Every structure is written in structure tokens, then in C-alpha cells.
From TrEMBL:
Record protein name field: Extracellular metalloproteinase
One GO MF term: zinc ion binding
Record-annotated membrane-spanning stretches: none
Classification via InterPro entries: FTP_domain, Fungal_virulence_M36, Peptidase_M36, Peptidase_M4/M1_CTD_sf
A cellular component term, taken from the record's GO annotations: extracellular space
EC number(s) stated in the UniProt entry for this protein: 3.4.24.-
A GO biological-process term: proteolysis
Compartment(s) of residence: Secreted
Family classification: Belongs to the peptidase M36 family.
């Protein structure tokens, strides 16, 4: 159908939506699910709007679509005719975009279109089963109160300038489009859609500039944010309290973040440096409630094995191992230094060896371990439950234990050229002990390992690590009397603690030491 812009829009809308059943209303009460406020660039605040969506499911058997009686199934025609009948809209309103099929279903995706212009934030999806019946239908189609002219009054060139200034970046030459955006007040805006990047900050936005007013009215942030509810790396044990951290990764060490190897992205605790799981290595999906939001509120009154506590534990272990990866990376444990990464980004060393973290591993109790095969094979971390308390406690929630295990991997890889063969004798094995990350300031306090899991302030070693010889009398000369790897490790750890204290006394403490090795 071809009409002049204003005429067609109002007539089509009036007719098409007169009896619409599922076109989304603009409800102010749906604030949290429909709007995203972002502060960007030079003080600009943009409230992006995503119309409410409806979802209907029709059981595994599904329901017919209007073209079901035809011999040939055409996913495009079936989708368009189903949406047309379900929403009681004209076929021209439904712009088929794409589809894909897997073993059990075929999924089709469409955009709403008004007068030939797509509505960027009004979409729908239909799933068909193998018998070509409709099993589910989701829609955020809108019924706008008014439609502006489809001829821009602001030129594309001006829109690009606006976007570049507002977002502090450069237009990246990706072909711009002209699209409608449904606004919260029920109106539509015609927009120039351009991509803006800033190579320094890594920012990458899709910017919707109103083609009549020149205002930036909507943003898509292509840089995925990840949030984790964890015990931050400068805290040692759980009573110090969880915090929600957003994007804690260091781009200098993990250029594609913690959930991508450059080719495959995930929304679970799996990425280029580590994968954390309970059960099998593929069993990471249930923890991912929405996107990259790993917000699981650990419940200390319940067993560590209830789902939310498993999820909290693998989130924390994943966070700690990735953080230790990023810290050790800037100090030289890089791809060429035989570190643990799946993709080495062409920077040397052997890849495909991210750390596998088995939380609540069923093969042990009251312990944890780390196996370090040669560069090119994954380091294997196993975290066990501790049964000193009721309910039991989870080693994955005590940062010093996770860090301690992880540093076995670092010391075993950084000695002997990545073979994992070097620290095999008793004394050298002990040298793999005793590294930690919880220093907060220049005050070097005595250090206790494992006090949370065994619920004893003295921890699991014979003495706290201390600069005070009356608190910890262990010296290098103690070694000949010791015959167990952890006992020997304690001595080395205490020496390391004293070296650290001496360095801080001489050079001071740096708040940015975890990201800035200078
Ligand atoms: C990118 O961001 C940096 C830091 O905010 C800023 O100094 C620079 O001007 C921006 N680049 C462009 C092209 O706007
Ligand atoms: C997956 O993890 C759950 C706990 O989150 C566990 O009960 C189940 O046995 C695991 N399944 C496999 C196949 O490992
Ligand atoms: C300094 O660090 C010590 C030990 O980590 C801690 O107990 C203390 O609260 C910290 N002080 C400040 C001001 O953060
Ligand atoms: Ca490696």
C-alpha cells in the first residue's frame, strides 16, 4: 500500500489497531523493565525506552497459523500471517527479519513497520515446532498516538555531528539507517541511527538522533556489562560482606572480557580465562538468570548445596580466578609466560587451557586442590565443602582459599618453562604456597588462612604470617625439621609476608597495584 506519509500512517494505524488484542500499552508502572537510563559523554542523560512485551505459549503441540492447511510450509509467510491474525494488523505492518531452525523448533523474528519505516524497538518473535505449529509468540508491537513525517528535517550529516559530540566518539562508517523509535509518551520519533565508537575508552554505541528535533533520544550500548555479587578481591572471608561489582575485568589483561574468547560469547560463568561449574563442565546454564547479572544472594542458614548457594559460590570462584588472571597478567603471567587462556590472541604460548573450576566437587572434603599440567592443557581447580560447621561451608566463598589454589597454577607454570614439572620436590612444592591479594593499605597486619571454612580465627596453619617473631617464629632454618609440603609452605609464606612488609615499608603502598605494575 502506498499513501502519502501522514495520510497512510494515520489511516493504517486507525484501521489496523482498532481491534488489536496484544499491542502493548505504554504503562508508566513498568519503569524497571521498559526503560534504561544512561549517563554518557559530557553529562548527557538518555532514557531509552523498550515497550512492554507480551508472551504467549501454546503447549508442545502448538496451535495452527492461518496458512496451516497449505502443503508447503514457508516460515516467512506463516509468521507474517500468524502475527497479522493474532494482532489483527495489516501484513505491511510486519517486516520479516530473519529465522533459524534447530533440532526442535524454528524461530522467526520480525520488526513492526509503519509506512515502510521499521520501528526499532517494536519487535515480535514466533516459534514453530517440527509440525509447523505455533508454540510461542512474543511481541512488543506498539499502537502509537501519532506518527511524524518520514522525511527528515535534520540532515544525516548534522545527526552524526550531534551524536559524536553527545557521546564523545567518532562515527564508525557503519551504514546509517532511518528508523522510528516508539517513545514512552506513546508517540513515535523518526530517527537517524548511527554507530559511534571511542577507541580510547572502548565505548561503542548505536545512537538514535531525532531526525526532526536533533535530540539524542535512544541508545544501544554494545558493550555488555557484567555484574557479580561477590566477595571483592581485597576481602578475605565472607563475614567482610559481599558487594555487587560491575565490569571488574581489566581490559589490558582480558581484552574481550571474562565471557568471550573473541569468537564465542556466553552469559554463564565461562569465558576465555576460566569456567566455573557444579557437576559437569557443561552444567553452567542454570545460574544465568538474566544476561550477565550474576546476582545470587548467598543464604548462610541453608546448606551450600541449595541452588542459590551453588550459584553464589561459582560466581565468586569465577570472579576470583579471573581477577587473579588479570592481576598476574600485568605482572608478567601472560600468554607467552604460559598462562591459562583459551584464546591467546596471537601473543604466544599455547592456548585452550583456561582454568576449570569445579565447585563443591564431590571427590573431596575439607580441602581444595589445583592440578597444573603443561601449557596448553587446562589447569584444574577443585573446591570442596568443609564439614566443620552445620550447615557446611564452601571453600569457593573464602577468597584466600581460591586465590591460594590459583597461585599454585601460576608458580607451577612460571617455573620450568610451562612444563608443570618444576616444583615437584618437597621444598620446591612448599614454595607454591602463600600468596594473597587482600592487602587494603600500607598497614601490614598478621595474616590467617582458612579461618572461615573451619570457623576458627586461628585458621588452618600453625601460626599466622607475621612480621613479629613472637607471633610466628618460623624461619628458613626451621625447614630441616619439617616434612610436609604445607608445613614447609608456611615457612616460605611467612618469608614472603616479611619481604612484602619490607617492600611496603620502603616504597609505600599503591591503591592501583592490581592494575598498574609500575
Ligand atoms: C574518547 O574519550 C576520551 C576520554 O573520555 C576523550 O578524551 C576523547 O576526546 C574521546 N574521543 C573522541 C573522538 O571524542
Ligand atoms: C548440574 O548441577 C546441579 C547443581 O547445580 C547438580 O544437581 C546436577 O547433578 C548437575 N548435573 C550434571 C549433569 O552435572
Ligand atoms: C587497612 O588495612 C587493614 C588490614 O587489611 C584493615 O584492618 C584496616 O581497616 C584498613 N584501614 C583502612 C582505613 O581501610
Ligand atoms: Ca596457556
Amino acid at each position: 500500500m502506498k499513501f502519502s506519509a501522514n495520510f497512510s500512517a494515520s489511516v493504517i494505524l486507525a484501521v489496523l489497531f482498532a481491534t488489536a488484542v496484544s499491542a502493548a500499552p505504554f504503562l508508566g508502572s513498568l519503569k524497571h523493565s521498559t526503560t534504561q537510563v544512561r549517563s554518557v559523554g559530557s553529562g548527557l542523560v538518555v532514557e531509552s525506552f523498550h515497550p512492554e512485551s507480551t508472551l504467549e505459549t501454546f503447549g508442545v503441540g502448538g496451535i495452527d497459523h492461518p496458512l496451516s492447511t497449505r502443503d508447503e510450509f514457508d516460515v516467512k509467510e506463516a509468521t507474517v500471517s500468524f502475527i497479522q491474525s493474532r494482532l489483527n494488523v495489516h501484513p505491511d505492518t510486519v517486516a520479516f527479519r530473519t529465522s533459524f531452525a534447530n533440532d526442535v523448533a524454528q524461530h522467526a523474528f520480525v520488526k513492526q513497520q509503519i509506512d515502510g519505516v521499521p520501528v526499532a524497538n517494536a519487535v515480535a518473535n514466533v516459534a514453530f515446532n517440527k509440525d509447523n505449529k505455533v508454540v510461542s509468540f512474543g511481541s512488543s508491537f506498539v499502537n502509537p498516538a501519532s506518527v511524524p513525517s518520514t522525511t527528515p528535517t535534520i540532515s544525516l550529516q548534522d545527526a552524526i555531528l550531534k551524536a559524536e559530540n553527545a557521546l564523545s566518539g567518532k562515527f564508525n562508517e557503519h551504514p546509517p539507517t532511518l528508523e522510528f523509535v516508539a517513545k514512552k509518551d506513546g508517540t513515535l520519533a523518526l530517527t537517524h541511527v548511527v554507530q559511534i565508537q571511542n577507541d580510547t575508552t572502548g565505548a561503542w554505541f548505536e545512537v538514535f538522533v531525532d531526525a526532526h528535533s536533533g535530540e539524542v533520544i535512544q541508545l544501544t550500548d554494545f558493550v555488555a556489562k557484567a555484574s557479580y555479587r561477590v566477595l571483592p578481591i581485597t576481602k578475605e572471608t565472607l563475614p567482610e560482606g559481599f558487594e555487587v561489582l560491575t565490569d571488574p575485568q581489566n581490559p589490558a589483561a582480558s581484552p574481550d572480557g571474562w565471557h568471550s574468547d573473541g569468537t564465542t560469547s556466553t552469559t554463564v560463568t565461562a569465558g576465555n580465562n576460566a569456567i566455573a561449574f557444579k557437576g559437569s563442565q557443561t552444567n553452567t546454564t542454570s545460574e544465568s538468570s538474566s544476561g550477565l547479572n550474576f546476582i545470587f544472594v548467598q543464604d548462610p542458614s541453608q546448606a551450600p548445596t541449595v541452588q542459590v548457594n551453588i550459584d553464589a559460590a561459582r560466581t565468586n570462584a569465577f570472579y576470583v580466578v579471573n581477577t587473579v588472571h588479570d592481576i598476574s597478567y600485568v605482572y608478567g603471567f601472560t600468554e607467552a609466560g604460559f598462562n591459562f587462556q583459551n584464546n591467546n590472541f596471537g601473543k604466544g604460548g599455547a592456548g585452550n587451557d583456561r582454568v576449570t573450576i569445579s565447585v563443591q566437587d564431590s571427590n573431596g572434603i575439607d580441602n581444595a586442590d589445583f592440578a597444573t599440567p603443561p601449557d596448553g592443557q587446562s589447569g584444574r581447580m577443585r573446591m570442596f565443602l568443609w564439614d566443620f560447621t552445620n550447615p557446611e561451608r564452601d571453600g569457593a566463598l573464602e577468597n584466600d582459599i581460591v586465590t591460594h589454589e590459583n597461585t599454585h597454577g601460576i608458580t607451577n607454570r612460571m617455573t620450568g618453562g610451562g612444563t608443570g614439572r618444576c616444583l615437584q620436590t618437597l621444598e620446591s612444592g612448599g614454595m607454591g604456597e602463600g600468596w594473597w591479594t587482600e592487602h587494603k593499605n600500607a598497614t601490614v597486619v598478621d595474616y590467617v588462612l582458612g579461618q572461615y571454612v573451619i570457623n576458627d580465627p586461628a585458621g588452618i596453619r600453625s601460626h599466622p604470617y607475621s612480621t613479629d617473631a613472637t607471633v610466628n617464629p618460623l624461619r628458613y632454618s626451621s625447614l630441616p625439621t619439617l616434612n610436609e609440603v604445607h608445613d614447609i609452605g608456611e615457612v616460605w609464606a611467612n618469608m614472603l609476608h616479611n619481604v612484602y612488609a619490607a617492600l611496603v615499608a620502603d616504597h609505600g603502598f599503591s591503591d592501583t597495584a592490581h592494575t598498574d605494575p609500575t
